[in-house]
Design goal:
This protein is of the alpha/beta class. It has 12 helices and 15 strands. It folds into 2 domains: 211 residues, Rossmann fold; 172 residues, Alpha-Beta Complex (DNA Methylase, Chain A, domain 2), CATH 3.90.120.10. 24% of the residues lie in helices and 15% in strands. The chain has a 7-stranded mixed beta sheet, with helices on both faces. Strands 8-9 form a two-stranded parallel sheet. Strand 1, helix 1 and strand 2 form a beta-alpha-beta unit. The chain is globular and about 60 Å long.
């Protein structure tokens, strides 16, 4: 079976997609403690290293990680950082970001195939000198000896019930990468197109128990059978108990505000001053502004909007007057129900924790882990399409080199 290494692994969405595509994910590196707990619980065969890649020497990487793996995957944040100060380094240059750690590890391990994931904003980003960030990324990967191709994938076109665009930079030892990744789902499904229907919020979560505000049990049992093939797939291998399906604590005032929000609307549509969001700072009173993306009620029969790391405040359930649970978000991201997320469901803002010196609590909560992840089924689709691109082709169905 071909072997993979996952860097910046988070909760393991890309790892799971690689496993679905036929890889043995032997090693994973992730800095966050709670995300590592999630990885260890759900990927027991993977050696999980909790570490900051910037602090790992070349010797450690070569000694502890898989040499010449078939696949190296990762989603390094590309926001700049500089120990020398902004006057000496451009913080928008990906060579001054965690991307350089991905390149360093690739240079040391020499994988046959590598895939780096990022947000679509990287395609518009430029350095202070006006250079394209995406072109810098591609040039750095070519500098390692790879042929490189860039793919921009729309998640809903690959069976993910969510409108989500992601960029994948793929490097292979020889250029037999496909021109594009063929979609499997679309708005014009049927025999003529060979496409399946785009999945909706209803397709994703309608079989989950309708737990409402006030439900506090750590686990809950299913109340009925799956209603479609996607739900059957999500339930495969799951126990009778469903975890991470606990509603957030909402005040009566917040619940009443949600009652005023219709499908497709957000808290910006609430006109009753008594129900407007309150400021979290003094002087007290309602918030001076509203945010169109906050507390938007999803439609049952459309794909969900993009799940961000803070999606606990982004979306209202299509029917109930509460935000999504972590499990509902996990379904929309295509994590199966057997996948259990560690850590607290939510945490207060990193800025507040830092200001109060509560550094031990600065971890990725369940919602952060889910929202940050590569949807496993999207990772699978991408990897299955490009896995024959290295110097040797893989027979993934048989788990061996062809």
């Amino acid at each position: 079976m071909p072997v993979a290494v996952d860097l910046f692994a988070g909760a393991g969405g890309f790892s799971l997609g690689a496993e679905y595509a036929g890889y043995d994910v032997a090693q994973a590196v992730e800095i966050d403690a709670w995300a590592c707990e999630t990885l260890t619980r759900n990927h027991p065969e993977t050696a999980v290293h909790q570490a900051d890649l910037r602090e790992l020497s070349d010797e450690w990487v070569m000694r502890r990680l898989e040499r010449s793996p078939d696949l190296l995957i990762g989603g390094p944040p590309c926001q700049g950082f500089s120990h020398a100060g902004p006057s000496r380094k451009d913080p928008k240059d990906p060579r001054n970001s965690l991307f350089r750690e991905f390149v360093r590890v690739a240079r040391l391990l020499e994988p046959k195939l590598l895939v780096m994931e990022n947000v679509p904003g990287i395609l518009r980003a430029k350095t202070s000198d006006g250079d394209s960030v995406a072109e810098i990324v591609e040039d750095e990967l070519r500098g390692l000896g790879y042929e490189v191709r860039r793919y921009v994938l729309e998640a809903e076109r690959f069976g993910i019930p969510q409108s989500r665009r992601r960029v994948f930079f793929v490097g292979a030892e020889k250029l037999d990468l496909p021109e594009e990744i063929a979609a499997t789902h679309g708005e014009d499904p049927g025999p003529s197109t060979g496409l399946d229907p785009v999945l909706t919020v209803r397709d994703a979560i309608s079989d989950l128990p309708l737990v409402d505000v006030g439900h506090r049990a750590d686990s809950v049992e299913y109340v009925g059978p799956p209603e479609n093939p996607f739900q059957e797939q999500m339930r495969e291998g799951a126990s009778p108990e469903l975890f991470n399906h606990v509603p957030m604590r909402h005040s009566a005032r917040t619940v009443q505000r949600f009652r005023e929000i219709g499908p497709g609307q957000s808290q910006s549509h609430v006109t009753d001053e008594a129900l407007a969001p309150r400021r979290r700072v003094r002087p007290p009173g309602s918030s001076a502004g509203t945010y169109d993306q906050n507390n938007r009620r999803m439609h049952w029969d459309r794909p969900c909007h993009t799940l961000a790391a803070s999606f606990y405040a982004n979306f209202v359930h299509p029917e109930l007057h509460r935000n999504f649970t972590a499990r509902e978000g996990a379904r929309i991201q295509t994590f199966p129900d057997r996948y259990v997320f560690a850590g607290k469901p939510t945490v207060v803002s990193a800025k507040l924790l830092s200001r109060e010196g509560r550094h031990a609590e600065q971890h990725l909560c369940q919602y952060n882990q889910i929202g940050n992840a590569v949807p496993p089924l999207l990772g699978q689709a991408l990897l299955e399409a490009v896995s024959g691109a290295g110097s040797e082709s893989f027979d993934l169905a048989q788990g061996s080199l062809a």
